Amino acid sequence: MKMIEDFKNKKVLVLGLAKSGEAAARLLDRLGAIVTVNDGKPFEDNPMAQTLLEDGIRVICGSHPLELLDEEFALLVKNPGIRYDNPMVVKALDKGIPVWTEVELAYLVSEAPIVGITGSNGKTTTTTMIAEVLNAGGQSAKLCGNIGYPASEVVQEARDTDCLVMELSSFQLMGTESFLPKIAVITNLIASHLDYHGSFDQYVAAKWMIQRQMTEEDTLVLNFNQEEARALAHETKATVLPFSTQEVVEGAYLLDGKLYFKGEWIMDADQIGVPGSHNIENALATIAVAKSLGVDNQAIRDSLAAFGGVKHRLQFVDEIAGVSFYNDSKSTNILATQMALSGFDNAQVILIAGGLDRGNEFDDLVPDIRGLKHMVVLGQSAERVKRAADKAGVAYTDANDVADATRKAFALASQGDTVLLSPANASWDMYDNFEVRGEVFLKAVEELKG
Predict the structure, then answer these.
(1) Domain spans of the chain?
(2) What is the model's pTM?
(3) Binding-site residues, please?
(4) Annotation: binding site for ATP
(5) What class of enzyme is it (predicted)?
(6) Which CATH architecture has domain 11-100?
């Protein structure tokens, strides 16, 4: 880690705790900043804040007092989930205080080069794939970022011989200024988080910030299946390296069931350890990065063939009486569920779907669910999901929650069938996040087996 002096004796406010806020506060403290942490959770119920205070870091909990910003902070580092219309953020910006997320801090002190991965779907799987392939190829890759390991924590132990493989959300990227990955990947772009960004254009602009500081010496991996990516390829100074499952490109591509990189066969598509057309895209993006960093083909092939997926993202759970269970709780939108279904024979799938009602219809899902053996439907959006099922001619059963849905799906299944939790909806109508929803599914499968 570079022990920079940019923050020495400067007052910095960390807004919002969780893992990333704690990591940012500790990194800033280590760099000599005068740190104040402000978190909405009451101090008596906030063990993270209590530990920070014990370690000599000032904490203010229970509310977000606007007058706190009158202390003339040099910087505000906010939790990525805090919106820019938050009164504290608005006042900071009005006062000319820079507002960052912790990944900007991580970049400033990093000795290791960064591979940054963003996109609407597939970024967690692709991030994990890349790290595993690089490590299989003899490089030292460290996972961090939106994948659950705060970048500003991991970076403190990383050396110049390491590589930070960093998953980045649009929320995180909006809080960057000088952030510069050596290689950047945008897996795909579909309308997401519009309640936060306001429009698709603004959402794309946030994702596009990943390449803002890149030059021709840096590599930008783009999904040329998408017209948006093709258009954006002309708007960057980076060297563009495309991937595609639809045509031969000057990068990584699928042709006749085989994966190639610039004309060189890497592996057959059916050798990839996880099913689904979306995982072919993820593998192609991974191959593009790996080849750019000099990983040999055998290491790429062995690693991708052994890849077992990511928890809650098309995760194989177990097989009971010949019925396979897959946990795809991370599929919080229609496209993610479409991708998940592409890896299975619909005639042998019982799909569990439904969740937070955002007011959208599910007509786009109709072609993908046509031919399903059955659906089990739950959540606020159940009526809308059932309308799509009716249009597709698919029978369905109602469920009270994920555990109930899992039991009912298993009762409907026969040997050789698959029970797939792929909700096409966010989880917040019933569960705190998709991880909790997925854990309920895992526990229900475990109880069925018992």
Answers:
(1) 11-100, 103-306, 315-449
(2) 0.78
(3) 119-125
(4) 119-125
(5) ligase
(6) 3-Layer(aba) Sandwich (3.40)
